[in-house]
Amino acid sequence: MSTKDDKSRKKNGEGSIYQLANGKWTGKLQIGKKPDGKPLRKTFSGKTEAEVRKKIREFNKNKEKYLAENVPTLSFEEYINKWLYTYKRNALKPSSFDRLESSVKNYVIPNLGYLQLGNIENHDIQKVINDMFDKGLSHSSIKKVYDICNGVFNYAMIKDITQNPMLGVEMPSIKKFDKTEIKYFNDDETKRFEIEAKRLYKTGRRVYNYGYAFILMLNTGVRMGEVLGIDKYKDIDLDNNTLRIKRNVVVVKERDKNDPSEIIGYKAQIQDSAKTDAGDRIIPLNKKARESIEYLMNNCDNNSSLLISNPEGDTLSMSSFSKTFNKILSATDIEPCGLHTLRHTFASRLFKNGVDVKIVSELLGHSNVTITYNTYIHLIKEQKVKAIQSLDFDEDDDNSMEEN
User: What is the 3-state secondary structure (H, E, C) of the chain?
Assistant: First the structure.
C-alpha cells in the first residue's frame, strides 16, 4: 500500500509532492472545488521528484488550456475569478472594477461559488436573488448580482457551456422596493447653512477652509468627487460664466502587481472622466456659484491646478471634506445627513422653480432622465399638484369673470 514518507514537500504553486512507498513520486495540486465545497485536485506522478515538479510547472504554464477543457467541473468561484481578473479588470475604470469585485466577493461567491459551473441551474440563481430581496437589500444591489451572473454566463456560452442558466431568472419588480425619501434642505436650512459656511473668526480668518466649496455644490448640484476634481485652469470659464465637469476623484484599491486580487491599500486618484458619460457636462453659474469659485481661486496657498486641494496641493481627502461639512451641520442644528443632500437641494430648488425634469437631469449628469424621475418622483408629483392648483380661481375671480 502506498504511503507518504518524510520526503513530503510543498512549495507555492506546486501543491504537495511526496514519495510513495514503492519509490515513485506523486504530486497533488488544487485547481478548484467540488459541488460539496471540498477541494478539486489534479494528480501528477513520476519516477523522480524532479519529473513531477516539471509536470506541474508545465501544467501551470498551460493552465488556461486545461481549464478551458475541463470548465464544467470547475467551481463557479474559480471560473468567476478568472472572468473577473482576466477579462473584466482592464475593461473597466478602477473604481467600477472595485465595485464589481465587491459584489462578486460579498454576494455571488458566498452563495454560488461552491457549485460547479456546469451544474448551476436557474433555480440556484433565482434563490440568491429571492434571498437578497427577503433580506431587504436594495434594488441596486440585487440588480448588480443579476447583471454579474448574466455577464459571466454570457461569456461562458462562447465556448464553455451549452445552456445559459440565467434564462428564466426574474428580478423582483421595482415597485416592490420601498422608496427611500431623499433629504434636502428647506429654504431656512439653506440660508443658515450658507451663512455658517462663510462665517469668519474675529480675526477675519475663515472658520471653514472649504466653506465656499459647499456653497458651490449647493448651486451647481455637483457630486463630492466632481467638485474635488475641478481643474481651475481647464474647467472654469468665467468669461462665459460656466463650469465644466470632466473629472472625478475616486478612492480605489491599490493592488499587488503580480496578484490583482491581493489588496495592499487604498488611494484617492483623479479619474479623467465623470461618473457617467452623461456626467461630462457644462453647468451655467449663478451669482453664488461664481462668487464661490472666485473666492476659491483667489485664496489658494499653493500652485495646485485643483480648485480645492490640501495644503500640499494634492487631492483633498474625502474624509476631511466630509468632516468639515458635518461641522457646519452641527453648528447650524441641521439634522445629520450626507454630502449628497447638497445635490438634492439643488435639484429640489430647480423643480420648485418649474424647471423641466429633462433639464434637471442634464444639469445633474444622470445617464438618463428615468433616473432623475425615479429619484425625485415625490418632488415632481408635488410640483404637478401645485401647478394644477394654480389654475383655481377664488370666488371673487369667478364673479368678476361672469360680470365681464
Answer: CCCCCCCCEEECCCEEEEECCCCCEEEEEEEEECCCCCEEEEEEEECCHHHHHHHHHHHHHCHHHHHHHCHHHCEHHHHHHHHHHHHHHHHCCHHHHHHHHHHHHHHHHHHHCCCEHHHCCHHHHHHHHHHHHHCCCCHHHHHHHHHHHHHHHHHHCCCCCCCCCCCCCCCCCHHHCCCCCCCCCCHHHHHHHHHHHCCECCCCCECCCCHHHHHHHHCCCCCHHHHHCCECCCCEECCCCEEEECCEEEEEEEECCCCCCCEEEEEEEEECCCCCHHHCEEEECCHHHHHHHHHHHHCCCCCCCECCECCCCCECCHHHHHHHHHHHHHHHCCCCCCCHHHHHHHHHHHHHCCCCHHHHHHHHCCCCHHHHHHHCHHHHHHHHHHHHHCCCCCHHHHHHHHHC
Q: What is the largest CA-CA distance in the chain?
A: 118
Kindly report, as residue ranges, where domains of CATH 1.10.443.10 are found in the chain.
187-389
- Which pLDDT belongs to residue 38? 66
User: Using one digit for the tens of pLDDT, what is the confidence trace for 62-93?
Assistant: 665 555 455 556 789 989 999 999 999 999 98
pTM, rounded to two decimals: 0.72
The superfamily CATH assigns to domain 76-176 is Tyrosine recombinase, N-terminal domain (1.10.150.130)
Asked if 260 and 272 count as a contact pair (C-beta separation under 8 A), the reply is no
Angstrom distance (rounded) from CA 36 to CA 197? 59
HSE on the CB side for 88, CA within 13 Å? 20
Q: Any residues with CB less than 8 A from the CB of 388 and at least 6 apart, and which?
A: none
351 has pLDDT over 70? yes
Supply angle C-alpha 324, 328, 334, rounded to 5. Answer: 135
From the centroid of its chain, how far is CA 393?
Answer: 50
C-alpha cell at 378: 415625490
Average pLDDT over residues 227-240: 95
- Domain spanning 187-389: which CATH class is it, in words? mainly alpha
